[in-house]
Predict the structure.
Amino acid sequence: MPDFQITTRGMPARAEEWFRAEDAPESELPQLTEEDRRRARLRHMTDEQYARHLVLKAYAKRRELDEAERIGGIIQDLFGELGGKFKLNGVVKRGFEPGWRVLIESHSPGTGWKFFDVSLPTEDFSDEPGKRVLNISNPEEIRAYLLAELDLGESQRIAS
Amino acid sequence: MLKLSPEGKQALSDAYDTEFVKVFVQWADDFGLWVVQDRQESGEISVLLIKWHFFETAQLDVIWPEPITGKIVGFHKQG
Protein backbone atom coordinates (compact mmCIF):
# COMPACT_ATOMS: atom_id res chain seq x y z
CA MET A 1 0.00 0.00 0.00
CA PRO A 2 1.63 3.27 -1.06
CA ASP A 3 2.13 5.86 1.68
CA PHE A 4 0.95 8.69 -0.54
CA GLN A 5 -2.48 9.74 -1.73
CA ILE A 6 -3.64 8.43 -5.11
CA THR A 7 -6.68 9.87 -6.85
CA THR A 8 -7.83 8.09 -9.99
CA ARG A 9 -10.54 9.20 -12.38
CA GLY A 10 -11.38 6.25 -14.63
CA MET A 11 -11.68 8.50 -17.66
CA PRO A 12 -11.03 9.04 -20.41
CA ALA A 13 -10.64 5.37 -21.14
CA ARG A 14 -8.57 4.15 -24.05
CA ALA A 15 -9.79 2.46 -27.19
CA GLU A 16 -8.18 -0.86 -26.24
CA GLU A 17 -10.03 -0.76 -22.90
CA TRP A 18 -13.29 -0.07 -24.72
CA PHE A 19 -12.79 -3.16 -26.88
CA ARG A 20 -11.86 -5.28 -23.87
CA ALA A 21 -14.97 -4.13 -22.04
CA GLU A 22 -17.17 -4.73 -25.08
CA ASP A 23 -15.65 -8.20 -25.53
CA ALA A 24 -15.81 -9.18 -21.85
CA PRO A 25 -17.86 -12.35 -21.38
CA GLU A 26 -21.22 -11.86 -19.71
CA SER A 27 -20.02 -13.95 -16.78
CA GLU A 28 -17.47 -11.22 -15.97
CA LEU A 29 -19.97 -8.38 -15.96
CA PRO A 30 -20.85 -6.97 -12.55
CA GLN A 31 -24.23 -7.58 -10.96
CA LEU A 32 -26.14 -4.32 -11.11
CA THR A 33 -27.78 -2.82 -8.07
CA GLU A 34 -31.14 -1.08 -8.24
CA GLU A 35 -29.25 2.22 -8.27
CA ASP A 36 -27.14 1.00 -11.20
CA ARG A 37 -30.29 0.07 -13.08
CA ARG A 38 -31.75 3.49 -12.41
CA ARG A 39 -28.57 5.08 -13.78
CA ALA A 40 -28.70 2.83 -16.82
CA ARG A 41 -32.27 3.93 -17.55
CA LEU A 42 -31.25 7.56 -17.10
CA ARG A 43 -28.58 7.04 -19.77
CA HIS A 44 -30.92 5.14 -22.08
CA MET A 45 -28.62 2.13 -21.74
CA THR A 46 -29.63 -1.48 -21.36
CA ASP A 47 -28.45 -3.20 -18.18
CA GLU A 48 -25.77 -4.98 -20.17
CA GLN A 49 -24.54 -1.76 -21.77
CA TYR A 50 -24.31 -0.13 -18.36
CA ALA A 51 -22.50 -3.15 -16.90
CA ARG A 52 -19.94 -2.89 -19.72
CA HIS A 53 -19.66 0.84 -19.03
CA LEU A 54 -18.77 0.00 -15.40
CA VAL A 55 -16.23 -2.58 -16.60
CA LEU A 56 -14.69 0.04 -18.90
CA LYS A 57 -14.30 2.51 -16.04
CA ALA A 58 -12.82 -0.21 -13.84
CA TYR A 59 -10.21 -1.01 -16.51
CA ALA A 60 -9.33 2.66 -16.87
CA LYS A 61 -9.08 3.14 -13.11
CA ARG A 62 -6.87 0.06 -12.80
CA ARG A 63 -4.51 1.46 -15.45
CA GLU A 64 -4.46 4.84 -13.72
CA LEU A 65 -3.70 3.20 -10.39
CA ASP A 66 -0.79 1.29 -11.95
CA GLU A 67 0.50 4.54 -13.47
CA ALA A 68 0.19 6.42 -10.18
CA GLU A 69 2.02 3.70 -8.27
CA ARG A 70 4.76 3.60 -10.89
CA ILE A 71 5.17 7.39 -10.89
CA GLY A 72 5.11 7.44 -7.09
CA GLY A 73 7.78 4.76 -6.94
CA ILE A 74 10.05 6.70 -9.30
CA ILE A 75 9.61 9.87 -7.26
CA GLN A 76 10.13 8.18 -3.90
CA ASP A 77 13.33 6.57 -5.17
CA LEU A 78 14.51 10.00 -6.29
CA PHE A 79 13.61 11.63 -2.98
CA GLY A 80 15.38 8.84 -1.13
CA GLU A 81 18.55 9.73 -3.02
CA LEU A 82 18.05 13.38 -2.11
CA GLY A 83 18.31 12.50 1.56
CA GLY A 84 14.76 12.93 2.80
CA LYS A 85 14.43 16.66 2.13
CA PHE A 86 11.33 16.05 0.02
CA LYS A 87 8.28 13.93 0.72
CA LEU A 88 5.72 12.76 -1.81
CA ASN A 89 2.18 13.40 -0.54
CA GLY A 90 0.12 12.45 -3.55
CA VAL A 91 -0.16 11.46 -7.19
CA VAL A 92 -3.56 12.66 -8.33
CA LYS A 93 -5.78 13.24 -11.32
CA ARG A 94 -7.47 16.61 -11.38
CA GLY A 95 -10.66 17.30 -13.33
CA PHE A 96 -10.24 16.68 -17.03
CA GLU A 97 -6.63 17.79 -16.94
CA PRO A 98 -4.38 15.42 -18.91
CA GLY A 99 -1.56 13.70 -17.06
CA TRP A 100 -0.95 13.71 -13.34
CA ARG A 101 -0.33 16.14 -10.51
CA VAL A 102 2.24 15.28 -7.90
CA LEU A 103 1.94 16.85 -4.46
CA ILE A 104 5.21 17.30 -2.67
CA GLU A 105 6.31 18.84 0.58
CA SER A 106 9.81 19.81 1.56
CA HIS A 107 11.36 20.94 4.77
CA SER A 108 14.76 22.48 5.27
CA PRO A 109 15.99 23.77 8.63
CA GLY A 110 15.26 27.47 8.90
CA THR A 111 13.00 27.68 5.86
CA GLY A 112 9.82 26.05 7.09
CA TRP A 113 7.59 23.73 5.12
CA LYS A 114 7.00 24.24 1.43
CA PHE A 115 4.37 22.53 -0.62
CA PHE A 116 4.59 21.95 -4.35
CA ASP A 117 1.89 20.98 -6.83
CA VAL A 118 3.70 19.83 -9.96
CA SER A 119 1.97 18.95 -13.22
CA LEU A 120 3.35 15.85 -14.94
CA PRO A 121 2.26 15.91 -18.60
CA THR A 122 2.11 12.17 -19.24
CA GLU A 123 -0.64 12.47 -21.84
CA ASP A 124 -2.03 15.12 -24.14
CA PHE A 125 -5.59 15.57 -25.41
CA SER A 126 -4.88 18.72 -27.42
CA ASP A 127 -3.15 17.14 -30.44
CA GLU A 128 -0.91 20.20 -30.58
CA PRO A 129 2.22 19.27 -32.52
CA GLY A 130 5.45 19.30 -30.55
CA LYS A 131 3.77 19.25 -27.16
CA ARG A 132 5.96 17.47 -24.63
CA VAL A 133 4.55 14.26 -23.20
CA LEU A 134 6.48 12.35 -20.55
CA ASN A 135 6.95 8.63 -20.90
CA ILE A 136 6.06 6.88 -17.65
CA SER A 137 8.14 3.88 -18.67
CA ASN A 138 11.22 6.06 -18.63
CA PRO A 139 12.12 6.83 -15.00
CA GLU A 140 15.04 9.05 -16.02
CA GLU A 141 12.70 11.30 -17.98
CA ILE A 142 10.34 11.65 -15.01
CA ARG A 143 13.23 12.31 -12.62
CA ALA A 144 14.84 14.95 -14.83
CA TYR A 145 11.51 16.71 -15.39
CA LEU A 146 10.65 16.74 -11.71
CA LEU A 147 14.04 18.03 -10.64
CA ALA A 148 13.72 20.90 -13.09
CA GLU A 149 10.20 21.63 -11.89
CA LEU A 150 11.22 21.69 -8.25
CA ASP A 151 13.92 24.22 -9.01
CA LEU A 152 11.35 26.35 -10.82
CA GLY A 153 8.88 25.71 -8.05
CA GLU A 154 10.50 28.33 -5.89
CA SER A 155 9.04 31.06 -8.08
CA GLN A 156 5.73 29.32 -8.75
CA ARG A 157 4.67 28.51 -5.23
CA ILE A 158 1.45 29.83 -3.89
CA ALA A 159 1.45 31.33 -0.44
CA SER A 160 -1.14 29.88 1.86
CA MET B 1 -24.59 7.97 -25.23
CA LEU B 2 -25.90 9.88 -28.23
CA LYS B 3 -29.47 10.46 -29.29
CA LEU B 4 -29.40 10.48 -33.07
CA SER B 5 -31.30 13.08 -35.03
CA PRO B 6 -33.79 11.80 -37.63
CA GLU B 7 -31.21 12.59 -40.32
CA GLY B 8 -28.46 10.82 -38.33
CA LYS B 9 -30.66 7.80 -37.73
CA GLN B 10 -31.21 7.49 -41.44
CA ALA B 11 -27.59 8.13 -42.43
CA LEU B 12 -26.22 5.72 -39.83
CA SER B 13 -28.82 3.00 -40.21
CA ASP B 14 -26.18 0.51 -41.38
CA ALA B 15 -24.22 1.00 -38.18
CA TYR B 16 -26.96 1.55 -35.61
CA ASP B 17 -30.51 0.33 -35.41
CA THR B 18 -31.56 2.39 -32.40
CA GLU B 19 -32.07 6.06 -31.68
CA PHE B 20 -29.78 5.99 -28.63
CA VAL B 21 -26.28 4.75 -29.37
CA LYS B 22 -23.41 4.04 -27.01
CA VAL B 23 -20.15 5.20 -28.56
CA PHE B 24 -16.49 5.61 -27.69
CA VAL B 25 -15.25 8.93 -29.02
CA GLN B 26 -11.71 8.72 -30.30
CA TRP B 27 -11.53 12.40 -31.21
CA ALA B 28 -13.69 15.32 -32.27
CA ASP B 29 -13.09 17.97 -34.89
CA ASP B 30 -14.97 20.42 -37.11
CA PHE B 31 -16.67 17.55 -38.92
CA GLY B 32 -18.10 15.84 -35.86
CA LEU B 33 -17.30 12.95 -33.56
CA TRP B 34 -15.02 10.17 -34.75
CA VAL B 35 -16.13 7.08 -32.86
CA VAL B 36 -14.44 3.72 -32.58
CA GLN B 37 -16.20 1.18 -34.74
CA ASP B 38 -14.03 -1.86 -35.22
CA ARG B 39 -10.62 -3.28 -34.47
CA GLN B 40 -8.67 -5.32 -36.96
CA GLU B 41 -6.30 -8.16 -36.13
CA SER B 42 -3.38 -5.92 -37.04
CA GLY B 43 -4.40 -3.63 -34.21
CA GLU B 44 -5.67 -0.91 -36.51
CA ILE B 45 -8.86 0.72 -35.38
CA SER B 46 -11.51 1.89 -37.79
CA VAL B 47 -13.49 4.92 -36.79
CA LEU B 48 -16.83 6.24 -37.92
CA LEU B 49 -17.66 9.91 -38.38
CA ILE B 50 -20.85 11.05 -36.71
CA LYS B 51 -21.44 14.54 -38.05
CA TRP B 52 -22.51 17.12 -35.52
CA HIS B 53 -26.01 17.37 -36.93
CA PHE B 54 -26.42 13.59 -36.81
CA PHE B 55 -27.17 13.73 -33.09
CA GLU B 56 -29.38 15.87 -30.92
CA THR B 57 -28.12 15.15 -27.43
CA ALA B 58 -25.07 13.59 -25.85
CA GLN B 59 -24.75 12.20 -22.36
CA LEU B 60 -21.41 11.61 -20.73
CA ASP B 61 -19.90 11.27 -17.29
CA VAL B 62 -17.95 14.17 -15.89
CA ILE B 63 -15.84 14.24 -12.76
CA TRP B 64 -15.49 17.53 -10.96
CA PRO B 65 -12.02 18.32 -9.68
CA GLU B 66 -11.64 16.51 -6.39
CA PRO B 67 -10.49 18.33 -3.30
CA ILE B 68 -7.00 17.39 -2.30
CA THR B 69 -6.88 15.75 1.08
CA GLY B 70 -4.13 16.60 3.49
CA LYS B 71 -2.04 19.71 3.31
CA ILE B 72 -2.69 22.45 0.80
CA VAL B 73 -0.12 23.89 -1.55
CA GLY B 74 1.75 26.90 -0.16
CA PHE B 75 3.73 27.86 2.92
CA HIS B 76 3.38 27.33 6.62
CA LYS B 77 4.99 29.78 8.99
CA GLN B 78 7.24 28.23 11.56
CA GLY B 79 6.24 28.43 15.21
In short: Residues 152-160 of chain A have pLDDT under 50 and may be disordered. The radius of gyration of chain A is 19 Å.
